Amino acid sequence: MLRLKSCLCVGLGLFFLASCSTAKKTTVLQSPQTAVINPAKVVEETKVIIDSVPVGSQLANQAARVAGALDSVPLTPEEQARLIYNSGIHKEYDYAQAMHFDWRKPQYVMIHHTSQSSTAQTIRTFQLPHTKVSSHYVIGRDGRVVQMLNDYIRAWHAGRGKWGQITDMNSISLGIELDNNGREPFPEAQINSLLILLDTLKTRYNIPQINFIGHSDFAPGRKDDPSVFFPWDKLAARGFGIWYNESYLLPAPATFNPIDALKLIGYDMKNQEAAIRAFKKKYVKTDLTGQLTDRDKAIIYDLYRKYY
User: Fold this and answer.
1) Cβ(138)–Cβ(185) under 8 Å?
2) pLDDT tens profile 79-132
3) Tens digits of residue pLDDT in 178-203
4) Rounded mean pLDDT of the chain?
5) Domains in the chain: how many in total?
6) Distance CA 126, CA 115 (A)
7) CB neighbours of residue 160 within 10 Å
8) Can you tell me the distance from the alpha carbon of 263 to that of 279, in angstroms, rounded to the nearest whole number?
9) Largest Cα–Cα distance of the chain, in whole Å?
10) Is there a single domain that holds both residue 117 and residue 229?
11) Domain annotation covers residue 38
12) Angle at which helices 57-66 and 77-87 pack, to 10 degrees?
């Protein structure tokens, strides 16, 4: 009986102390003289676990490959991107993810022809280490579309060249390769698939109409793709690239400077003849000399008035 009374007394005592403690805390928190910790101080003083970015066995295996332990198993582009992302996080510091940032956003689309014999050959070319070339998409003659890189990853498709003030086109563009040897027309199924893809890319990334160009536009004299068979007029009618109005061509005024206009369109005029040939291969097709005729000047004048 005495033990029972002692237990009851101890229990009541603990309850009383807990009640007093709770009431006291509430009073302190509500007291106007109590210093309030603002959110900024909380964030600054909160310790984040340093290893808050987990590195699992899969990532460890990828790191081993990079180090040369598993060279026989190449990394996928996504694995490489993940490794690069994680290598940009310094483990010796605390880490708290901000919410405002950007990835590489495509601003241009560049169209190529493969100069190869099949879609399979092109895909194989883009998967060999020594070729050092790639593209985001490959479209077969039958209209099959194969994506080979994430849109946000920088492909190696443009190479050396210049368009306006842009010299590193790979960093801001998407590359599309069309299975074509450069000496034949592009099948309707292939062009239809291209138009669907271009519509998706233009809508998703808000790419301006004038920013759909060919490889030869960017690298005149060095590249000639896509060939004279490519239907730029059909693309322009759908809002991908520019084209002139054949029915309303006006003679260029005597004061009009076609060389300056070509430069404004984007062509690098350091090699003037090469730039003119690239322009004529795209818009004239039948005369590929390095000199401008009156009709050539009329076409340039129409494009200048229409788009620039």
Assistant:
1) no
2) 887 888 788 888 888 777 787 777 788 999 999 999 999 999 999 999 998 999
3) 999 999 999 999 999 999 999 999 99
4) 82
5) 3
6) 13
7) 11
8) 11
9) 120
10) yes
11) no
12) 100
Is residue 181 a contact partner of residue 191, using CB atoms and an 8 Å limit? Answer: no
Q: Residue 257 forms beta bridges with which residues? A: none
3 state SS of 175: strand
**Which of 45-49, 91-95, 128-132, 137-141 has the largest mean confidence?**
137-141
Better-predicted residue by pLDDT, 216 or 10: 216
Residue 76 has what pLDDT?
82
CA pair distance 288, 274, nearest whole angstrom:
10
Both tokens of 206, joined, read 């808000």
* Residue given tokens 């084209």 in the structure block: 243
pTM of the predicted structure, to 2 decimals: 0.74
Tell me: do 268 and 306 sit in the same domain: yes
Picking from 210, 243, 276, the residue at the C-terminal end of a domain is 243
Cβ neighbourhood burial of 114 (10 Å; 0-12, 13-18, 19+): buried
Range with the poorest average pLDDT among 17-31, 57-71, 149-163: 17-31
Q: Say if residue 215 is in the same domain as residue 308.
A: no
Looking at the chain, list the stretches that DSSP marks H as alpha helix, in order from N- to C-terminal side. 2-30, 39-45, 57-66, 77-87, 119-125, 188-205, 215-218, 232-237, 258-265, 272-283, 294-307
pLDDT for position 234 = 98
Distances (CA, A) of 301 to 22, 182, 281: 84, 29, 17
Residues involved in catalysis: 177
The whole-angstrom separation of Cα 193 and Cα 199 is: 10
Measured distance CA(160)–CA(170) in Å, rounded: 10
Is residue 139's pLDDT more than 60? yes
